[in-house]
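We modelled the chain as a single entity of 57 amino acids. Its sequence is:
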Amino acid sequence: MSARFCDLPLAERIERAEARRMAEATEEARKRPGSAAFVLPVAGGVATFAEAGSPLN
């Protein structure tokens, strides 16, 4: 028996929303002077780095 909490379209919407949120927050981090933050598109999602130890990484 498979334990499903949502269907595929809902899971895709959740993943897109999370990727968008991560990208937007990291773009804000890039505005700080000396920031090394970046957002890279990867396979339909994003890879992000805001700063060392950040939960956005």
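As a brief sanity check on the tokenised model: The chain has one domain: 8-49. The two ends are 35 Å apart (CA to CA).
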